[in-house]
User: Fold this.
Amino acid sequence: MEKFLWGGATAANQYEGAYDISGRGLSNVDLLPSGEKRSDVAKGILDPKDLPADSIYPAREAVGGYYHYKEDIALMAEMGFEVYRFSISWSRIFPHGDEIKTNEAGLKYYDQVIAECLKHQIEPLVTISHFDVPQGLIEKYGSWRDRRLVDFYLRYCETLFKRYRGKVRYWLTFNEINMVLHLPYLAAGITFRPNEDPLEVCYTVAHHELVASAKAVSLAHMIDPATKVGCMLAAGCIYPNTPDPKDSWQVVEEERKSYFFTDVQVRGYYPGYAKAMFAKKQLKIPIEPGDAAILQAGVVDFISLSYYNSRVLGEATKENTAGNVFSSLKNPYLKASEWGWQIDPLGFRITLNQIYDRYQKPLFVVENGLGATDVLEDDQIKDDYRITYLRDHIDALQKSRYEDGVEIWGYTTWGCIDLISASTGELKKRYGMVYVDLDENGHGSGKRLRKKSFYWYQDWIKQQK
Ligand code: BG6
Assistant:
């Protein structure tokens, strides 16, 4: 049994900035603009090349984590973190993606980040690709449409596994792998071409990523048998709107769009409903002989997940709302965040139970938190709303562990330090327990300030030790 770890999480593209420093190449996320066009680019229906010249790209500077990582990790240590989840920027290591030689300066940066974690006895949990594809691979190969991406990704993985052998024990292959069906550019660098069948492209990309993920798991175990490699699912239970069986069937179908990925990554083979769907819709998925064995050999050690909200589906008789990209009907029993994401701690417990019931594999909650506008007054941020959200969700997590017998290895709050929102590109949608003094236009001192939730989480972790 693994020791349970408390901590927080960030991702390179939303935290680091420094997009052109020390030989780093451009990446898909550097071309995601702020503002109303962001969503169309993320969905793959607007080519970033067609954006106006004065577009603003928030990931390029983000919150300057590249320059602040020492002080940020010290703040995490002060909160008592036992684990820090962060991602490595692929194009810092392979600027165009298909080089043979690595960019040593990029690796040196992560050497230091990992050393800093270990200095503070914080276990690094590394996402290999968090919404991140080198632009070179998009331009030259059409991104994950092309099977050659599997080899480039594997070369990148091998570099990391060897360099950080004995230092990094937990790896995640792809952040929210199911997001590729919903935001294919953000998740996988895909902009649809004319005459392409979007569904066929998405499942082709999915297949290549699933093969790459399975190969990465096998490779990690070969290089260091002590490593634990997980998949990562954007999770959240779905309720039927009414007892009408049609609503429940809609839920089943929607859940399969997510479980498809974990079914393959955890069980090691394509589920029957996916094969039936490929046949019915006449999708040509380039599954090669030998892929079945690769998928079977590379099943994950644990399932990591993000949870922000639950959803409601059924006949659309009620108002729609937002929620981590997936649309949902409004749930009259729940309150919602400023961004319309429905707050449902019991839904968290339901989600954890559902996933564990399905797979009986250890879980790791690697994202959970509240995006909210914070007000800075006299250098203080009284974010009681965030404390309430975290306290209620942690309570649900503990009930899952102790009353329901769900095996969970850890919990990392999302955006433990304020960072750029993935869906909107905003900085005002803050998740952190540490405030970053920057505004929407990147103006400000960049200073880090402890919010009220910082002290709350510090106290919580202390009580658990
Ligand atoms: C998850 C992503 O979808 O949710 C994160 O893994 C993201 O990258 C987080 O930031 C919260 O979503 P948002 O859109 O509020 O930033």
Q: What stands out?
A: The pocket of 6-O-phosphono-beta-D-glucopyranose is lined by residues 11, 14, 175-176, 234, 306, 324, 367, 371, 414, 421-424, 429 (CB under 6 Å). DSSP finds 15 helices and 16 strands in the chain.
